[in-house]
Design goal:
This is ADP-ribosylglycohydrolase. Keywords: Magnesium, Metal-binding. Mg(2+) binds at residues 99-101, 346, 348-349. Pfam families: ADP_ribosyl_GH. The structure is a single chain. With 465 residues, the chain is an all-alpha fold. It has two domains: 25-415, ADP-ribosylation/Crystallin J1 (ADP-ribosylglycohydrolase fold, Orthogonal Bundle), CATH 1.10.4080; 417-465. It has helices spanning 25-53, 61-67, 100-114, 121-134, 148-154, 163-173, 188-193, 199-210, 217-235, 241-265, 276-283, 301-321, 325-342, 347-362, 369-372, 378-392, 418-464. The chain starts with 24 loop residues before the first helix and ends with a helix.
Amino acid sequence: MTSTSGPASGPASGPALTLPPGLPHPFSQLILSTLHDRVVGTIIASAIGDAVGLYTEFLSAEKVARAYPARRFVLHPPEAATPFRRDQHRSWHRPGAWTDDTDHSLLILLSFLHNGGALDPADFANRLSVWVRNGLRALDTLPFGLGRTVGSVVRSPSFAEDPEGAAREVWVKGGRNLAPNGSLMRTHPLSVMCLSKDRAATFETAALFSVVTHVDPRCIVSCVIGTELVRGLVLGEYNDEAHIDAVVNAALEWYTPWAAVRDSAQGRDPEPPLDKEELSRHVNASTLEELDLDSGAMGYVYKCLGSGILLLRLAMRAVASSSTPLAAQVSLFEELLTPLVLQGGDADTNACFAGALLGAYLGYRALPPHWRDGLRHGDWLMHKAEALSRVVGVSPGTYDGRQDKDTAVDGGRGLLTEAQIEERIMVLQARIAQEEQEHNRRLAAEEKKDRGFMAQLKWSRSKEG
């Protein structure tokens, strides 16, 4: 697999974008400031969606309602953070932590920064292989939440030499019916990296990064649509629903000949055509309930794509119909994302993708502080988003990824041995066990207090009688 752009070295900086000629200087700075806000908004909002979505991941909407009766989530301040539903899935995490969804997007981001602005699917594949064994080394976090498809593909003996071939082998063995959302959840950084590209080049980039692990046509076309939507939202090219529909139609027209050329070049029989009606049902859903997010194949890529696009449509309608659109934008992110999270299902991935779309449309300044400021490793992520902004030319200054140890494959920390990984897992298990004991002690103390109160109440009433 080859890089989609040439190798780069040394500090990278803009201008990667060309502003209209003759634009007065103050206006050009204003445009760049807006782009900067949307670039950072894309990265941060997606991670927020991931972190908030973790609260309800893999739960039914009915269980979500029982676990979170307030129907609201708080990440900041830490002492007021909404506690997780107590179960094995969430016990490994702290409130405000993102999951593998954001980790995988960061592998693309760190690769881009390290390589001086070069897009290289092969380097991403290598980093993904390291993540499966070691987690995100830059933050010394373990690889929790590894999806079945990604795990099967990356652990394939042929993955290092031929990632797409390994992905295709897993897909074929699965009856050519595996279309999970594991590539869609990670592609939003590509949108920023493609700001200076046209639509066709963006489509191509998204497809090449999808097939590293996901070759099902539904996965590829979803990545193509999602990546181009975020790119156009950041640039301000897409601001109404007609633009969404145009991107979906363009992606379908682009995909068929693109796939035919690749099938021919690699000596494969042509794949069956995409079911356009099925895609249309998902991207034109009028309610979240229509998407049936908490049952069946929760991780189906069209469910993730459809839920994100629905929230984007609702945001566009709210802004267009408001007499105070700027005020409307400030509250929209939480108002739209919370109902999605309350649906349960693969909530962290759905909210991760939807967060990227809304962050690109609304910008960083519209993100709610009680979510934004409670994001674990939020300052670190902000620095990487700012570095990305410099490399693509929407904020001033230079950035040299080679001098940033975080961008190295091992995060500047070295790779872990099996013994070190086991030790970290044991420490986490001990922490979880201790927290469970403390929780049970608190429950016992509260029950004892309640029994004492009821006994006192019963005694008082008997005296009154």
